[in-house]
Every structure is written in C-alpha cells, then in structure tokens.
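The protein record quoted in full:
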Amino acid sequence: MQIDVITLFPDFFQSPLQCSLLGKALAKGIATVNLINPRDFTTDKHHQVDDIPYGGGVGMVLKPEPIFAAVESLPILEPREIILLSPQGETLNQELLRDFAFNYQQLVLICGHYEGIDERVQNIITREVSLGDFVLTCGEIPALTLINGIVRLLPGTIGKPESIISDSFEDGLLDYPHYTRPPVFRGWEVPLVLRSGNHKEIAKWRYQKQLEATEKKRPDLMAKYQYQVKD
C-alpha cells in the first residue's frame, strides 16, 4: 500500500514513522509513506500557501492551487481514496480502518490547517475523516492515527496475526481483561480460570467479560452488537 501525505509539516512525521512496529513495517516495505509539502508547489517567492478568506473572518485559509498541484503530482494507483482530515468527516473506527487497509492500493491524506481549506479542494476529495467531535491544531495528528491504524492491520506488521482478532472492536465488542505474572499483586489476584489451563472455560470467561465491559463502558456498541447477533 502507498500512503501519500500532503502536509505543511513533514517533520511532524519523522520520529513516529521510524518507531516501534510502524517503523519496522515501513522498513520492510509492507507500506510506503510519502510526505509531500504543498509549499514545494507554490510559484511566488514567499511560498505562500494561505490567504485571507473572502467575506472576512478570523484566521487564514489554505489556498487551492498548492493542494491541487501536490495531489496531481502523484502517480495514481487504483483503487485509491483522497482523504481530507477534517472535524466534519465521518468518525474513524475499526471498520473504516479495515476498509482502507484491505480495499485500497493508495491513500492520499490531506492535512488541514488554520481556519480550513478552500472549498474548491472538495472537488478532488473522495472522503473526509475525523477523529471525533473536537478540533485539533492540525490535520497531521489524525493523519498519523490513520496511518498507524491501517499499517498495523497489513499482513506482516504484527508478529502474531491472531492477536489482532481479539482486539477491541474487531468483533463489535470491547476487549477482555488481560493479566500477567505475578499471580497476586498487592492483594489483587489473577482470576483462577485464567490459571486453570481449561481453554474452553477461559474462552467463555473472556467472552463474558467482553460483554460486561461493553455494556458498562459503551452501551451504544452493545446495542449495535445485540442487533447484529439477533439478525
């Protein structure tokens, strides 16, 4: 998979893209991340990428020309999505990450800044994605989140692929509790069933704990899960 990031601040990504499993996956070529700065596509001596908004208002707006030029400079790998990271987009979730990871060869991520991007950029956008109902200082943070969530799903990134299956949200439920040694810590004991060696009972216990956690913490997910199970 190729991920192209249109960003005014390429340095923002340098350390995160080299660390941990994400860095190892990119080093192995499981995915490729290219950082493209719109300033490189400006034609004025000041490399201006923003301007004052028509109609007045506070703040600056990203100009359309550098964004269009940056996107149009990229080779096209189909199928692809051109994604604007925006608080107005659909909320990122595990289902959307799976869609991106397994159904696309190329993702072009456009990181917003300032008061927003000239509306005419919408003519090349195929999707808008948000982390939630809040506003950040830049689109690089959700872009990095998107990259991390997608690349970890790609074959070869996680050493034990079966571990992904039991993650929160993969089956519509939150994850079950995890324990490791010592068996007793400050009076808190690891449940006996997990030390029993009875894998059938362990599976039953974990599933029950998933149901309990989802019902308590995310009743909206629980309602959705129950509806799907009923169908």
